[in-house]
Amino acid sequence: MAPPETMYCAQQINIPPELPDILKQFTKAAIRTQPQDVLAWSAAYFTALATGEALPVKRRLEPGATGLTAGLLEIIYQQLKDKNVVTLGLLGKKWAELGLPKQQLSEIVQSGGFAEEVEFIKFFAVTCSHLGGGNITEGMRLICQILTTDPDGGACRIQFTLFKELYQYLASLGGEISQSQIEGVISHLQEDVDKQGGLVMPRNFLSPECPKLS
Amino acid sequence: MERTTQTVTTTANSNAQASKEKRKKRRRRRTRAVVDYEEMSVRYGAVKLQVPTGFKQLLENLSREILREQPKNIPSFAAAYFNRLLERREQGFADGYLVSERIVESESAPVEEEVLAPIEVAAEEAATLSQPTVEESMPDLTDPEVEKAATLIQASFRGFTARKSATHVNKTPEDSVKTEIPPQDEVEGSQQTPAAEVSQQEP
C-alpha cells in the first residue's frame, strides 16, 4: 500500500489518526476468525465494536475448520452469556453473522426441543453435545473447555453445580440414560470435586475409574 | 522450498545433538516471513496466514468510504456501511460490494461537503437552467415521492463517482510502483517534475 504522504489529488486526503489501528485490528480479526461470510461478519464486527459488545473474533486460528467449531461457539457464548433467555430469532442472527449453515441450527433446535424462547445455557449445552457428535462425554468436555476461566491449555475446571445441572439436562434429553447411571457419575465425581474446591475438570470424568457418562 | 525447511527444523528440534551454529542458521531461515501484498498473505515456513476471500476488496472499499466521509465515529460508520451493504445483498444486488452509496452520519461531516460541493452546485445549476422553460411540469418538491426519487438519483450518481474514484485509487499505487518513484530531492523541485527532469537529463 502506498504511504499516506502520497498525493492522490489536489486536496490532501485527511487520514483520521485512529483509522490505521482500526483497520489493522479488523484485518487481524479476519485472519484469525476466517469468517465464511465476510460481509455479514464485518457488519457484526463493527456493530459490536460500536456498541462495546464482545467482538465476533476467535481467540485463535482453527485451520481448515468449516461449519460450527468450538471457537465459533465460544464467540456465541461470549456474546450471549449475560442473557438468560434468548429468542430463536437472535440465535439465527448470530448464526448468520458467523456464516454458519441454517440447517445445523435447526438440527440443534430440534434435538433440544426448543420453542421460540430458549434458555441460553441449555441451548449452549445442546450445541456442545452436537459439536461433540452427539456424544455426551465429548459434549461435557467442550462445555468445560469453553466455560472455564483457566488459562489456555490449563485444567479447564468449572463449577460442579453448573456441571451437574448441564449433565443432568443433557442426559435426560435423550431419555436413554438411566437415573441410576446419572447418580452414579455424580456421586463418583463428588469425591474429586470435594478435593478440588467445588470444581470439576475433564480429567475427572474422562478417567477410566469414572462410570461412563452415557 | 519453505515447507521443507519447516519439517527439517522440527526434526532438528527433537535432536538435541544439533550444533549451535546450524540451529542459528535454521532459526534465521525459519523466522523469515514471505509477504505477498497482492493477496494479503504472510507465510512462515509451512504456516500461511491469509485474509479470507473477498476481504481485500472489502477493506479497500471501507477505507475509501471512511476517507471520503471523514466520519466522527469510525466504528459506527463502518457498522452502518456494512449493514447497508448486507441489506442490499439481501435485496439481490449481486455487486453490492462495488455500488457504494453514501452513508452520512446523523451529524453531517462538513469536510466531505466541501469536496463534493462543486459537483453538486454544478448539477443544481444545470437543473435550474433547464427548469424555467418547463415550469408547468415542475414537480412538487415537498412531495415525499419526489424526495425519494431525488435520493435515488443522487445515490446512483454517487455510486458512479465512487466507482470512478475507486478505479482511480486502484490504479495510482500500481502505477507508482511500476514507474519507480524518483528520489525525494528530485520530487521536491516542483509540480511539473517529469518534464523538468527530462530536460535536465537530456543535455
Automatic annotation (TrEMBL), chain A:
**Top-level taxonomic group:** Eukaryota
Family, according to the entry, reads as follows: Belongs to the ropporin family.
Q: What's one GO-annotated cellular component? A: motile cilium
User: Which InterPro entries does the UniProt record give?
Assistant: ROP_DD (IPR047844)
Q: What is its main location?
A: other
Q: Cite the entry's keywords alphabetically.
A: Cell projection, Cilium, Flagellum
**Under what name is this protein listed?**
Ropporin-1-like protein
The record's subcellular locations are: Cell projection, Cilium, Flagellum
Organism the protein comes from = Ciona intestinalis (Transparent sea squirt)
User: Which SUPFAM superfamilies does the UniProt entry name for this protein?
Assistant: Dimerization-anchoring domain of cAMP-dependent PK regulatory subunit (SSF47391)
TrEMBL record, chain B:
Which spans does this entry mark as compositional bias, Basic residues?
21-31
Question: What GO molecular function annotations does the UniProt record carry, in alphabetical order?
Answer: calmodulin binding
**Annotated Low complexity bias:** 1-18
**SUPFAM superfamilies recorded for this chain?**
Dimerization-anchoring domain of cAMP-dependent PK regulatory subunit
UniProt lists compositionally biased (Polar residues) regions at 189-203
Where the record annotates domain RIIa, the positions are 53-90
Annotated spans, Disordered:
1-31, 163-203
Q: Record's InterPro entries?
A: cAMP_dep_PK_reg_su_I/II_a/b, DD_CABYR_SP17, IQ_motif_EF-hand-BS
- Pfam families assigned to the protein according to its UniProt record, in alphabetical order: IQ, RIIa
Q: What is the name of this protein?
A: RIIa domain-containing protein
- Give the species this sequence originates from: Ciona intestinalis
